[in-house]
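Q: Give me a backbone?
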Amino acid sequence: MKMFVYSIVLSLLFCFEQAVLSQPYLPVPEDDALLEHKQRLVAAFQKRMQEQHTLAPGQSNFDALYYKLEIDIHYDPNFIEGSVTGRFRVLQQPADTLRLDFDDGMQVKTVSEAAVSFQHNGQILSLALDRTYQPGEIVSVRISYSGKPSNQGFGYFSFRSMPDGSPQVWSLSEPYGAKYWWPCKDTPTDKPDSVDFIIGAPTGQLAASNGVLRDVVSIDSMTYFHWHESYPIATYLVSLAVGNYEHFQEYYHYGQADSMLLDYYVYPGYTDKGKDAFKDMSDYLDALSHYFGPYPFLREKYGQVQFGWGGGMEHQTMTSIGGVHPNYWSLYVHELGHQWFGDAVTCASWQEIWLNEGFATYSEALYAEWAGYAGYPPGIEAYRAYMGRIRYTDEKTVFVEDTTNIYNIFNVVVYFKGAWVLHMLRHVMGDDDFFTALRQYVSDPRWVYGSVRTQDFQTVCEEVSGLDLAQFFNQWLYYPYFPSYKYEWKMERNTASKTEVRFKITQTQETTVYEMPLDVTFYFIDGSDSTLTIQNYLQEQEYTFRLNKMPLSAVLDKDDWVLKIAEEKIPDQIPKTVNIRLWYPNPFNARQTIITENWLNQRSRLQIFDVLGRLVRELDPINHSRNLEFFEWDGRNNQGKKTASGIYFVRPVLNTTTGIQTGKSVKVVHLQ
């Protein structure tokens, strides 16, 4: 899920939401659609979240197989009534009690089928079964209930109004909210194989949900919409949105004879806006299918339904969105990316929510690479520009230690730094292996349509690449911050064919020493450059390079493949004079290169004298870098005439406010 960033005092948030719903269709600057995601921002909600959700005793002994929800929506007063039928397989131990998660604020009327009585307290609905069921047996229960679901801030189940004032209902159950409006085993670790959802709404309203719409039946003043989700689905992804929607459909053609429904529900008067905003959906699908493999719910649909929350939520096959405008492309791509990462494979623990949100955020960067971004054409530069936009430099860890606080689960770190983990992994593995691993991870029979942990993703990456990635994931997921590098380099000696350079890297951060491949790029006098990759794994590490050309400057990780700070080191004691570092070849015939080290804030000159002390030639630098100046002498004097063979002396000269400053001379030999 994705939420927009607005600088608004908490006490104004409710007013802001109503303002959003009543606003006309306005252009939205793309940067305003930049991320922080799904924070409820309501104190009452946080109070509910102070106890981390854990399975009730005995819940792990049941495997949820199927749910059938039958819910009628009523307005004025606002409440729901209906029933949930669930089928469960008993696993290891005989069982005579089934415990489901269900909010105490809802009223259970009756229980039936295998359930003969119930107790409802402490957010748990305990069902006494009609007998003791053995491992492998199927238990089917039905719960009839009613009530007004608790509306905590912007979720879980909301009675609201559309911009035209008509009533609207929508759900947003992530992370622990399904139990606030329907009884279930509310954990991402246990997905039912399928779900039927029959939504009753006042005639004239439409109801959008997961899967395929199988039937629509009107009875008296109610219309019933029968949705069927045939793929496994996490309970927090089961959703509904009900209101006076305008409805339009398109098709995504993913083969010459194959197509999939694109199903859209928007507010009254928004059809034209929606068609404009969603016009690139097929391109989004093409792009993400290219990177991740086929859309995982092809035999059903992909849809978007407008709701009254300022962001988006990746409900399976039917994303809920707050904004309808082409500038919200990153929101649409983010939520679409979740269909692979979050829906088809779902994080088994909220501590590893990066497996959902980091991957979806990374989808945005990949689409930037596919389509172009920030003035860059499609390609790697557009991708880098987007990754620069979501650079994360704060202290939190991607792995969420404390999931009792909603702000920890959906902190921006799991989005931005989570995406950067994938960005860095791409460089570590290389494009071929990286994208092969992504496609395999989301289609592997071991995990597809199930729940996953980081170790599962790591396993796929290691199987594909043959690399040991334990340290990579450990340092980037469980440690705060990032590496801070200081680097320095020095030309040791030069020959006609090789230049030897000593390159030193020091990690200065206080946390762990990072083990990463690092690119070192040398820029040469002739305008060319060369990038070499080194393995860096010590706090202080030196490397020796033998280059075919004389380097002008060096940059560490110029393409930002590593989340880091990198600075070229300045000497502790900056030299107060200009010194000649290298001169070659010596002796020389046609041309000699002379390199000076100059840390001062103005350019120097070279003066060349003969053995009698007569000034023969003055030279200005032909090029320079941060602290190096490059000169060339062609063996001619200031008048352009060739000088005689012999010994000459070269010294650097600097004009300062206090006069002329000279450096130490060196001897060169000119041979005609």
Observations:
- The chain has four domains: 41-272+300-317, 354-478, 484-568, 579-670.
